[in-house]
Design goal:
The protein is of the alpha+beta class. It has helices at about 5-15, 70-75, 80-105, 155-165, and strands at about 50-55, 60-70, 110, 115-120, 125-135.
């Protein structure tokens, strides 16, 4: 792994670590990422539990979002997927901004696929939402895509052994003894 790749991973990890619940920005105000937990008074209002985490998988950044919401909020909008996509957009915007503040450089995160959303009922009122979305990280020099098909790197002698049928093809085995009667 090159130093550039390591710096990108460390910067993204630190940007995500700075997003804990209760974090303050440089001016002492509560940090605003775009999550539901930021709305309302922290003591007087019933707060929504939500958060995110990130992991690096090859040359991709996997952002996982989890939340506990009311069932009526899932059915209140025409498309709950659009709400989740907006949350992912806010998270990525925050990660890019915080990465730039930490390292002084910018990072490119491009969307690879649609989010994978799982809504699980915990009671007749509340549900858990677990969603993941994958982004391609720009600037990775020597990191290969883990999901890319592998190339054939078999030794020529072993390839001949496999095409001849291995040990199971007794008709073509030249060193085989004839059965004794």
């Amino acid at each position: 792994m090159s130093q550039v790749t390591l710096d990108i991973v460390r910067g993204l990890a630190q940007a995500a670590a700075n997003a804990y619940d209760g974090a303050l920005d440089a001016s002492g105000e509560p940090l605003e990422i775009g999550l539901k937990r930021e709305k309302g008074h922290p003591v007087l209002d019933s707060r929504v539990m939500d958060g995110f985490k990130v992991r690096v998988d090859g040359n991709r950044l996997v952002v996982a979002y989890q939340s506990e919401i009311k069932l009526r909020d899932v059915y209140a909008t025409k498309s709950y997927e659009n709400d989740i996509n907006k949350v992912f957009g806010d998270i990525v915007k925050y990660l890019k901004k915080e990465y730039k503040r930490i390292t002084g450089k910018s990072v490119s995160l491009s969307e690879v696929e649609e989010p994978d959303i799982l809504v699980q009922k915990t009671s007749n009122v509340r549900v858990f939402v677990n969603a993941t979305k994958v982004y391609k990280i720009g600037g990775f020099e020597d990191v290969e895509d883990r999901l890319k098909p592998t190339e054939d790197r078999l030794d020529s002698k072993f390839r001949e052994f496999l095409t001849a049928g291995g040990l199971g093809n007794k008709a073509e085995n030249k060193n085989q003894r004839a059965p004794q009667k």
